[in-house]
Amino acid sequence: MITVSRRSLIQGSLAVGAGLAGIIPAPRAFAASTFEKAKAAKSISVGIANEKPYGYVETDGKLTGAIIEVLRATVAPYGITEVKGTIADFDALIPGVNAGRFDIIGAGMYVRPKRCAAIAFSNPLTRAGGAFAAKKGNPKNLHSLKDVAANKDAKIGTQTGTAQVEELKTAGIGADQTVLFTKDTEALAGLIAGRVDVIYFPDLELNDLIVTSGAPEVERVATFQQILKADGTPAFNYQALGFRKDDADLIDAINVQLATLLSSGKLLSLLSPFGFSANELPGSDVTAAKLCAG
User: Fold this and answer.
1) Which of 41, 127, 128, 180 gives a 20 to 30 Å CA spacing to 280?
2) What are phi and psi of 43, to 5 degrees?
3) Backbone phi, then psi, for 132, in 5-degree steps?
4) Domain residue limits at 162
5) Who contacts 284 (Cβ-Cβ below 8 Å, separation ≥6)?
């Protein structure tokens, strides 16, 4: 008769267990998504360029702006009651969100195919046209990007890292005619100082810039000619929230709320205190997927 000691049985069981451990993988630990973390903390962070009317900090420290107030309305139904802001230069926002410095870009950024390669976007919150500001009387009679391209003595200013830079190149405006500034306020100062003849920004941003500055020698150029698409219709730009590409659940959740805000009329009520009108609403048929496709 073969006898097996209790010690041998225990050792054999341990050996079998060790062998199975090499065959059957241990349960994986999944990290919570940005959305799940935000719901648990009731807080989410947003990167801003501190520019009106999109996302900025008031003198009393309050974070506000058209994009910020829409963001608050889209995350509130999920129990996220706090939106914390981080200020960065505009061209540092995409690297910043990808590096995890903040969760969302809330700076009125245009959806562009090139940007879509680096980050993901929500469906658009607004649409915007372009506008010029010049010194009173518009001394060089510039009313479009084509006018600037045709007048080799003309100089135009805009902000580095923005969609306007791309539009200047597409219009045939060379680097020798272009002056890039870090912020819109610096571009306005450059115009006043005579470094450029016009500055080019989204219409609402330019309106607010002129009003806030109170500069008597500057005016918005009347009868500005928008860039046209191939079919002859105005080529509007669409602004959206930006995200890391792996935050699909957060993007989907925000898109659900954006659709509700747009259909109910609440989106306009959130935007209008910042100078937006029904003309700046994006339309329900315009999606991030379409804009990213070009």
Assistant:
1) 180
2) -150, 145
3) -110, 150
4) 130-220
5) 259, 262, 263
Q: 52 and 110 share a domain?
A: yes
Laid out side by side, the sheet with 218-220 consists of 178-181, 156-159, 198-202, 130-135, 218-220
Pick the closest to residue 144 from 116, 118, 117, 172 (CA basis).
172
Q: Distance between CA atoms of 139 and 105, rounded to whole angstroms? A: 38
Mean pLDDT of the chain: 90
pTM: 0.72
Tell me, what amino acid is at 269?
Answer: S
Q: Is there a domain that residue 25 lies in?
A: no
Provide the token pair at 279.
């003309």
Residue 237 β-bridge partners: 128
| Residue 4: pLDDT over 50 | no
Asked whether 156 and 196 are in contact (CB, 8 A), the reply is yes
Residue 206: inside a domain, yes or no?
yes
Q: Outline where 4-129 has alpha helix (H).
A: 6-23, 34-41, 66-75, 93-98, 113-116
pLDDT for res 1: 42
Kindly state whether residue 96 falls inside one of the protein's structural domains: yes
Q: What would the pLDDT profile of 177-232 be if each residue is shown by its tens digit? A: 999 999 999 999 999 999 999 999 998 889 889 989 999 999 999 889 988 877 88
- Determine phi and psi for 283, rounding to 5 degrees: 90, 140
Return the pLDDT at 291: 95
